Amino acid sequence: MDQARSFVAVAEELHFGRAAERLNMTQPPLSRQIQKLERSVGVELLERDNRKVSLTAAGHAFLIDARRLVISAERAPLNARRIASGQFGELRIGFTAASGFSLLGPLLSEISTRLPNVHLELFEMVTGEQITALQDGDIDLGLARPPFDEKTFESQMLFSESLYVAVPTGHRLDLLPRELMVEDLAGEPLIMHSATKARYFYDLVVREIDIEHQNVVHSVSQILTMITLVAAGRGIAFVPESAKLLGVDGVSYHRLEDTTPDAVELHAIWNRDYKNPALTKLVQIVRDSMQA
Questions:
Q1: What's 145's domain CATH number?
Q2: Range of the structural domain that residue 245 is part of
Q3: 94 and 55 within one domain
Q4: 3-state helix, strand, coil in the chain (%, to 5)
Q5: What's the pLDDT score for residue 99?
Q6: Which one, of 175, 208, 207, 172, lies nearest residue 189 by Cα?
Q7: pLDDT at 34 (0 to 100)
Q8: Start and end of every HTH lysR-type domain (predicted)?
Q9: How many structural domains is the chain composed of?
């Protein structure tokens, strides 16, 4: 590194005396540095005589890389300090599809504002996949549904919302002049959550509603798929209130009067023994957002 810095000074000054003064050293050791560099590279980088110093063709080419090397070396300690403080680095965030259209956008905007030099990678995953990815170190933070092991993960509940029933616009349930009751749904074809791939919503729905399983016509894992099937007239579906944000035409949303308010929860979760300094900053952003 000292040889590269010495070469850059001589190449820019084209004078050993001025270059030595710039580097706060005497001329003889500077000359020896350049000679060692040329022997190491294997070509002559400078042409010198008693009157002037000039760059060879190889010297011109070498100067470009030498400048980059010197700049990188000067930046390296600062970058290391920034990474250690969480200002630089990488964050990998897992999210459920439903969180993607309700919370993810505002969170990413806040991260970009407060951590502009942190690179973000996003992974759409159901909660079970996020938990596995957190355990394997493949993501740093998940936007997921409970339950999860509180001994392994720290968490922050981000928001809760109510369960709604999505029905085709103009359907008899859509035309009732009152809030819907579970008993109103009797006999309706149901678009249900998958018991394996959408376990959180499946368990929530069967806990809140006495499902007529013989009426289930489709079992799917994604909220958007459910809403699309409702719009096609295939049945009715139980979805979080934020599904309204999808803006799918031909679908109306109704609160079920006899279900638990704010039963649908979304949490940020992360490993208690995490090592990524940028995650410390992200956790603070998440917690600040709950106090705003």
A1: 3.40.190.10
A2: 163-260
A3: no
A4: 45, 25, 30
A5: 76
A6: 172
A7: 80
A8: 1-56
A9: 3
